[in-house]
Amino acid sequence: MKKIIYIFILTASFLLNTTNIMAASLTASLSSNKSTVTVGSSVKITAKVSGSKIYIVQGNVSSNNPSVLSGGGTIYRKADLGSEPNGFSSTSKTFTFTAQKVGTATISISDTGIGLTVNDSPLSFSGKSIVINVVEKNDSSTTNNQNSNSNTNTNNNNNSNSSNSDSSKKEENKSNDNKLSSLTISKGTLSPKFSANTTSYKVDLTSDIETVDIAAKANDSKAKVTGTGKKDLVIGSQTYSVTVVSESGIKKVYSITFNVTEKPTVFTQFGDQKLGILKDVAKIEVPEGYKETTVTLEGEEIRGWKNDKTGLTLVYLADESGHKSFYIYSDGKVANKYELITIAGKKYTLLDIPSDMKEQEGLKADKVKIGDMELDGWSYEDKNHANYAVVYLMNEAGEKNLYSYEKTEGTLQKYVVSEEKKANNTLTYVLAGTTALFALSTLGVYMMYTNFKKKSIATIKDYYDRKNQG
């Protein structure tokens, strides 16, 4: 009895071990887009291997008669266990075979024997094959009867093959033309000018234009066009697309970017210029050191920017040509345009010259060129100082000064009246004061003398009048 039990255990163990080493089964298949091809043309063969929990699989696809039909290769896939912990269930690959001469070729898929599951169990599949016939180009009867999308080794269903062939020819005859013959807009101008091969355009508009119509026409009447019609516009940048899909399904996209800038409706006068007040200032680059504030201009509360260090307040306005700039705001109006000039690495703000400073002794009003900028200033009357000029600027500390500019070296320093001029001015004032005092003194003495003379004559006259009466 013990011997029987022992034999049973050995037999069970053998069967279990045999089960463990048997390879799990995979399914392989081949399919083609046609079973008959003409010499010089090609046929596509798709190989597919299916199963469960596949970690790695490999097979060879080949022709048994490459002189008739050449091509082939390897189908291979390995699971990425990081993203595919349970492996994959199928893999496929399409191969192109070229017909070399009239004949018949069998395309086969065979296992290379490296298949494994994610559990390291072996995998394998049985070979499959498909037969492809190669005929002469003018052998239409054979082609019409045998073209099909079959994945079998025979061509028994000739009617089906003929139908598939006709369908394939219709697909091949469909147009791939997905270009526009025209693209137009109701407002503005496309930049660059429309060309069927150019797909990106820009258009600049102002905020008084709130909508635009886009029209387009396909080059091929069978192509479909979408994305045309009336489009809404807002201040800023927005892109609309027009899509063309060819008869065969190929898509091309044309895009139009509309850049809409604000058009002012309220204006303020600055000299002989009319400046427009801008409210859309969210994206402008504010000069360094300025903080946002609110100011009132022409009865409108608008955004401004103040520099606590210099005391300047700026507003952002547009001139009559549409150019936008910062302007210095003071006492409820625009004082002058905000412009900076850099001299020897330091920044200065350009200022209008006050009326009481326009006359400077020894200087004459002139235009002063510094770099690419031309400023109102003074040149020296003395020709020995021809390389010097004087300008009125504000430094980074907010101090307003006259500055002497040396043209050759491009240097700047505070303009100081010379001691000689001061002495001359002082002497002039002293002489003028002395002359005035002398004139006043002389006048006083003369008046005193005249008054005394009048009194003396009157006294003498009274004396003689009294004597004659006595």
TrEMBL record:
Pfam families: Cadherin-like. Residues 140-166 have a biased composition (Low complexity). Residues 1-23 form the signal peptide. It comes from the Bacteria. Residues 180-259 form the Cadherin-like beta-sandwich-like domain. Residues 138-184 are annotated as: Disordered. Keywords: Membrane, Signal, Transmembrane, Transmembrane helix. Residues 167-177 have a biased composition (Basic and acidic residues). The chain crosses the membrane at residues 427-449. InterPro entries: Cadherin-like_domain. This is Cadherin-like protein.
